[in-house]
Amino acid sequence: MSTRFKYLLLFFFLPLFLYFSMYTWNWKTGYLDRLAAMTGLDVAGWIMAPGRWLQNNVDEFWSRYVYLVGVRQENEDLTLRVRDLEMELARISEKAKSADRMTSLLRFSPEASWEKRGGRVIGQRLGPNAILETILIDLGSAHGIHANDPVISPRGVVGRIAKPGLHFSSVLLLSDATSRIPVITSDGRVPAIVQGQGPGAFLEVKFIPRNDPVSPGELLLSSGQGGVFPKGIPVARVVEVTPADVSLFQKVYAEPLLALRYYEELLVLSRTDGFDPAGPVVNATGVGDASGNSTTAPAEKPAENASTPAAPEAQPPKATRHPVRKRS
Amino acid sequence: MRLSSTPYGQRRPGQFPAPLWWAGYLIVAVWAQELSGGLDFLSPGLLVCMQTGQWWTAAWMTVLWVLVQEGIGNLLFGVVILFYAGMFAFFMLTRWLLEPENPLFILFFSLVLALWGWVALNGAVRFQEIPAQVHAPWPWIAKQWLAYVVFWAGALAAYRRWGGHGRV
Predict the structure, then answer these.
(1) Chain B residues touching residue A32 (CB < 8 angstroms)
(2) Does the interface predicted TM-score (ipTM) exceed 0.95?
């Protein structure tokens, strides 16, 4: 064996073999991904958290004690709104009680219970490898967070936990191209799948049959199928419906109910019954596979007595066609 | 060419211990990554280490940098190892052509590193079949190149002032 061949073997083929062995082993087991999440993600989180804490406190101090323009008027408006909402709440709580009685009479299985935890967003796109639409929050495994736990805001779905670290976690936003959420339309109760199309683009609503009713302005609610998201949380609002020409399904686009990247506080929901809808998601390639949100259209329509949550505060847009950026 | 008259192994007044200095560097670099929207700012630190001949510091920093970049990233573990292996190989090759203290060295090496970063990232995204939007190549490479040069210059200047371990 010549010396040149030995060097080639030692410094090129051997490291290459070791590298691919490690890569394949990690692909199967995910140990190194978990190690990186528990260490590297936490290191970055502890670096980001004090700065964000300081920023939030300065912002809060400014808005609470210094910048008080229009507070009186806003207070009066909010008082009126609270009165309206109290009346609405009283009406809806009566309906909810009757729904509970019906459920009990018909012996439906009880709905899964969820625990809420509030968390702060402390980072956005932290490095060159953060190629998906993710944000970093200050909740992790130590707080009882698991992969695939839904992340919501008071206005609707934000995404789900993609990579839980020890004290910090990465959240996959619903606008990411690997995100798919089973939904139903609020009026027609038509099942569909909402898929992200990347930053700034509308969401694509898939698998709505050509004859099923759906119209611009209609809300899309999580259907609860797949077990990842609870049923009835607002996900998006339909902005464009194009009737099918030869396809079996309509072309429908929707927009998220909130600016996903500009939220500072979020809620993470965790199931209290210990049900795990899918295996852990530790990397991008596992996101689609282990999402627990089926990528095929649900077979049946949900029951007609399914509860419809109150619409979020945002007013429905006019039924005009919006410019839609579509990815080819 | 020696850039400092301080003998190796001696501490000057105002000089931080190496772990403390590099911890400060890590904090600044992670914030720079966040504020720049995803550019890499950790590699210039490794480059400073390699330029000053601190190979053991470069070794433990590589391990830490790999864990941080992989932890905050969305790809399968291994891309950053590949990137740093390429960086090390390019450093050896470029050093063979130019002195590490030569300004042309850093300009050429940063460009190669930015190109290699895009190739490694894009290759990993395709290999792992992720339907994500990758950065347009030339604007990203230009921004990353500029970031490497500017951050390396700042890091080296700060290192001479407050770090100063090894051959500076």
Answers:
(1) 70, 77-78
(2) no
